[in-house]
């Protein structure tokens, strides 16, 4: 049967090893067993493993990039094209304008960037 063990240095997981329970090498016998989930970079307090804190700057940059991609590839080609825009009903124009505004407002949401509620794209 396979098990996982974690090498810990300065309270951080630096290596994860999968080994046969019946054949544990002496050099890693003292490493803690991973009973749930743990990966390189996680913290270990002597009893439990903890995931690393999220990098909020990276999360924010990734969210803005995703938002900008949606705007550039989905919304703006419709909203910024007078002929396509004119083909929409007033109701659809309102839906798309509200969707665009909601996308632009994503960074102002409470909980941004760790907890984002993405607006729902209107049907074309």
Description:
The chain is of the alpha+beta class and 124 residues long. The protein folds into 2 domains: 2-50, no CATH class; 56-108. Helices cover 35% and strands 19% of the residues. It has helices at 56-79, 82-86, 90-104; strands spanning 2-9, 12-20, 33-34, 43-44, 49-50. The radius of gyration is 24 Å and the shape is elongated. It starts with a strand and ends in a 20-residue tail after the last helix.
Which overall shape is indicated by the principal axes computed on the Cα atoms?
elongated
> How many distinct beta strands?
5
Which structural class best describes the helix and strand composition? Answer: alpha+beta
Query: How many helix segments?
Result: 3
Q: What is the topology, as strand order, of the major beta sheet?
A: 2-1-3
Q: How would a textbook summarize the main sheet?
A: 3 strands, antiparallel
Radius of gyration: 24 Å
SSE ordering: EEEEEHHH
Spans of at least 5 consecutive residues with low confidence: none
Q: On the 0-100 scale, what is the average pLDDT?
A: 96
Q: Helicity, in percent?
A: 25-40%
Produce a short descriptive summary.
The protein is α+β, with helices and mostly antiparallel strands and 124 residues long. It has three helices and five strands; from the N terminus they run E-E-E-E-E-H-H-H.
Keywords:
single chain, 3-stranded antiparallel sheet, 124 residues, 19% strand, elongated, 35% helix, 3 helices, 2 domains, alpha+beta
What does the secondary structure layout of this molecule look like, with pairings?
Elements: E1 2-9, E2 12-20, E3 33-34, E4 43-44, E5 49-50, H1 56-79, H2 82-86, H3 90-104
Antiparallel strand pairs: 1-2, 1-3, 4-5
Helix pairs in contact: 1-3
